[in-house]
Amino acid sequence: MRVRYGETDQMGHAYYANYLYWLEQARGAWCRDRGFTYRSLEEMGYFLPVVEVFLKYHGEIKYDDDIVVRVRMGEVRRASMRFEYEIVKPGHPKVLTEGHTWHVLMGTERKAVSVPQAVGEMLHRNPADCEPLA
């Protein structure tokens, strides 16, 4: 991603709240690489709200910087999961930002439900074995 001018503050630094959008975008791409989307989960009757966010900043991200958000599944529990993130600049070894999001799998009644086998399999798919979505 390239940091847009509107994603920065008056000093040209990336505004902290925009990191959450970047995590969401990376998480959505992670799902697509495994052949599903949030919409397909919703069509199955499941929702995946964020219930906790943690970010730790180690370096500056500024306007027009090219950044990469790395995302991986950190942990899957009975009814929740944790995605872990690192934000870096391509070609630079330093992690600029690290963090995680916890999500609870909810059914149509808006209550936590155990992760069913079909959803668990989707979360653990190897992207190399899937047809990624456009």
Structure description:
With 134 residues, the protein is of the alpha+beta class. It has one domain: Hotdog Thioesterase (Thiol Ester Dehydrase, Chain A, Roll), CATH 3.10.129.10. 22% of the residues lie in helices and 27% in strands. A four-stranded antiparallel beta sheet has the order 1-4-3-2, covered by helices on one side. A hairpin with a 3-residue loop joins strand 2 (68-76) and strand 3. The longest helix has 16 residues, at 18-33. The radius of gyration is 16 Å and the shape is globular. The two termini are 17 Å apart. The relative contact order is 0.22.
Strand and helix layout:
Elements: H1 18-33, H2 38-43, E1 50-57, E2 68-76, E3 80-88, E4 95-104, H3 117-123
Antiparallel strand pairs: 1-4, 2-3, 3-4
Q: Averaging pLDDT over every residue, what do you get?
A: 94
CATH architecture: Roll
How many helices does DSSP assign? 3
- Major beta sheet, specifics? 4 strands, antiparallel
> Which structural class best describes the helix and strand composition?
alpha+beta
Could you please say which CATH topology applies here?
A: Thiol Ester Dehydrase, Chain A
Q: Give, in spatial order, the strands making up the sheet with the most strands.
A: 1-4-3-2
Q: Order of helices and strands, N to C? A: HHEEEEH
Uncertain stretches: none
Q: Strand tally, please?
A: 4
Please tell me the total number of domains. Answer: 1
Bin the strand percentage: 25-35%
Features:
single chain, about 130 residues, alpha+beta, four-stranded antiparallel beta sheet
How would you sum up this structure in a few lines?
By secondary structure, this protein is an alpha+beta fold. It has a single domain, classed as Thiol Ester Dehydrase, Chain A, CATH 3.10.129.10. The chain contains three helices and four strands, in the order ααββββα.
